[in-house]
Design a protein that fits this description.
alpha/beta
């Protein structure tokens, strides 16, 4: 009798199994196991133990979501995908940090007093350090914690990346490798990620007593640079006095406390900013910005902006060129000396060409994305057909795994294409390249913005001038236009 009962129970279990099929899917990182139920009998009921046993058979042992499985079976949510097991994510180690004990922002805008006067005398922009001063230090990387996948296997955490000092002349590293120190008195500098200490070449005046100066670091001149002399430096040049008809060249910035009279032969070139109380009868070229209280009969070119502030804030005569902004209070004068202002727009037009090329490249990417998206849809159809086929469970599982690997690869390629398409370079508003005059632009001033030209025939007051894409526009200033750093 007991034997007959056992046979009956086995038959009942087989009938229950035949009424549904359990399948599973493991995430690519092996941190999630999903159960999918295929009902062969719409009235079938699945006890939680069946899922627990199935997971055990598949060697899925860690992070079993018991409560979720019980609720899933109790509420007969068989049409939904069930998260049956969840692994433990590894906690990656934190990267090491490199900390600087000084301000690595080198260029600082000059200060303007409430009355419009610019302080050109206090030029304390040098960061002085003593021998054995700690310039920077490293906070070492922290350890992480391993994770566990749903099969119970450990997942190694990523170790935090270490950093190293990028250092130059007159510095050394401590014995424990965690500190960078100065090996001499001098000025600490930070350039392109590298820290080094410079000895400053300092003189009272540049004249017959010193001859021309050609120095690999910074130059500080307490007095004047006399006519006919040359000062060149790999670092910055700071002159507390004035410059006469001399040649100044710096691979960094130039600051002149009392101004420059070039005598129609003096010139300044700098890769950084040029700041001078006034500039008269000189040729000035800066790859960045030019700051002054007045420009008089000079040829000035700035890779970014020319900003004239202070009590007079005038541009009179000469030629003033900037890519971004020309800012002044008075432009030209009553005696009608011709003054030329030019907003180049060269960088704007170069960027416009790059954007056009980017759009052409995007068209190719879009075609490729469309093809791969189509391939993905076809693949998903194949997966569904296999799951509905009469193939054995093992065969279905094997085919499904193979196709899912292909699907993961396709999804990765699609995401890369989408990422490339999202990397757009927007063209800034052409109107941001402008001339701002917070006083008077006198007649006989010639204005060029890009390819457009305009000659001022009647005085213009309190105006902003820019290329609107079709013509040169002249509009009244608003308060936001005066907010220039």
């Amino acid at each position: 009798m007991d034997n007959k009962k056992s046979i009956s129970e086995n038959k009942l279990a087989e009938d229950i199994q035949a009424s549904y099929k359990i399948n599973h899917l493991i995430s690519a990182n092996r941190l999630s196991a999903y159960i999918r139920i295929e009902l062969l009998d719409e009235f079938a009921e699945i006890p939680p133990e069946e899922i627990f046993n199935y997971l055990k058979e598949q060697n899925i042992v860690y992070g079993i979501q018991k409560d979720s499985i019980v609720d899933f079976c109790k509420n007969k949510q068989y049409s939904k995908e069930l998260l049956a097991a969840r692994g433990k994510r590894p906690i990656d180690g934190k990267d090491a940090k490199l900390i600087y004990n000084f301000d690595i922002e080198k260029d600082k805008a000059f200060k303007e007093d409430d009355d419009g006067t610019i302080d050109f005398r206090n030029l304390d922009n040098i960061i002085n350090v003593k021998k054995d001063t700690i310039l920077s230090y490293i906070i070492p990387p922290s350890k992480g914690e391993d994770g566990i996948d749903v099969y119970g296997n450990p997942i190694k955490y990523k170790e935090g990346k270490n950093v190293r000092f990028d250092y130059g002349n007159n510095t050394y590293i401590s014995k424990d490798g965690l500190q960078l120190l100065a090996s001499t008195d001098g000025a600490v500098e930070y350039k392109k990620g590298k820290v080094f200490v410079k000895n400053i070449y300092r003189v009272k005046d540049v004249d017959n007593s010193t001859g021309n100066i050609n120095f690999v670091g910074d130059v500080l001149i307490d007095g004047d640079v006399k006519e006919g002399f040359t000062v060149t430096a790999k670092g910055s040049i700071k002159i507390r006095g004035m410059v006469e008809g001399a040649y100044i060249k710096s691979d960094a910035s130039v600051v002149i406390g009392r101004g420059m009279n070039g005598m129609s032969k003096g010139s300044i070139y700098a890769k950084g900013n040029i700041t001078s109380k006034y500039i008269e009868n000189a040729t000035i070229v800066s790859e960045q910005n030019v700051y002054a209280e007045a420009l008089i009969n000079s040829d000035v070119k700035a890779g970014d902006s020319v900003i004239i502030k202070g009590s007079t804030a005038s541009i009179i005569g000469g030629r003033t060129y900037a890519e971004n902004l020309i800012y002044a209070k008075t432009i030209g004068n009553k005696v009608n000396a011709e003054t030329n202002l030019i907003i180049g727009l060269k960088k704007y037009y170069e960027k416009e060409k790059l954007i056009t090329k980017k759009k052409e490249s995007n068209k190719k990417l879009e075609r490729e994305l469309s093809k791969k998206t189509k391939d993905l849809k076809e693949l998903e159809k194949k997966i569904k057909l296999i799951m509905k086929s009469d193939l054995s469970v093992d065969k279905k599982t094997s085919l499904q795994k193979q196709l899912l690997l292909v699907k993961v690869k396709l999804n990765t390629e699609i995401q890369k294409l989408k990422s490339s398409l999202s990397e757009t370079t927007s063209l800034e508003d052409i109107r941001k390249h402008r001339i701002i005059c917070r006083g008077i632009i006198y007649s006989n001033t010639r204005i060029t913005v890009g390819f457009l030209r305009y000659r001022v025939r009647q005085d213009i007051n309190y105006s902003k001038i820019y290329n609107d894409g079709e013509d040169i526009a002249i509009v009244t200033l608003n308060p936001a236009d005066l907010d220039i750093n």
